[in-house]
Amino acid sequence: PLSEITTRRLRINKEKAQLQTLGFKKDQTEMELRRQVIVEYNNLIAAQRILKIRTSARENALVVQQMADKQFKEGTTSLEDYSNVSYLTVGAESDYELARSNFSALYKQFEELVGVDISNLIKTV
After folding, report:
1. Tens-digit pLDDT profile for residues 20-52
2. How far, in Å, CA of 20 to CA of 32, rounded?
3. d(C-alpha 93, C-alpha 110), whole Å
């Protein structure tokens, strides 16, 4: 029919516009994914640094606890001081476990986001 011929250019232009729109949507999705990867990566790095800090605090607290145990057995420290050290050690242990759990969760989430097992990736580098 005649309408096929007269509207052909219009249909071609419409299809080109739709393809261009799809290209823009693809670019936008890629940009959003990049942003999300950057945010999640920074969250993972922060969690790793916090875990390192909490690990150090935990190790220090355990050393202080051992010293307090020895001093308490020798009778050179009061029950109140020993109790305070124990309380601080428990706090350091708890903070460490929370930081470890948070890092582990963020690590797994990041692996899911990027679709790569990070430990295998590190081995290949």
Report:
1. 999 999 999 999 999 999 999 999 999 999 999
2. 18
3. 26
Amino acid occupying residue 123? K
Q: What's residue 125's pLDDT?
A: 67
Burial 52-67, CB ≥16 within 10 A → b, else e: eebeebbeebeeebee
Beta strands in the chain (DSSP E): none
Residue type, 66: Q
CA distance 118 to 100: 17
Average pLDDT, consecutive stretches of 10 residues, N- to C-terminus, the chain (125 residues): 80 92 94 95 97 98 98 96 97 98 97 89 75
The burial of 40, by beta-carbon neighbours within 10 Å (0-12 exposed, 13-18 middle, 19 or more buried), is given as middle
CA dihedral 106→112→117→122, nearest 10 degrees, is -50
Q: Long-range contacts made by residues 36-41, C-beta under 8 angstroms, separation at least 24?
A: 36/113, 37/113, 37/114, 40/106, 40/109, 40/110, 40/113, 41/110
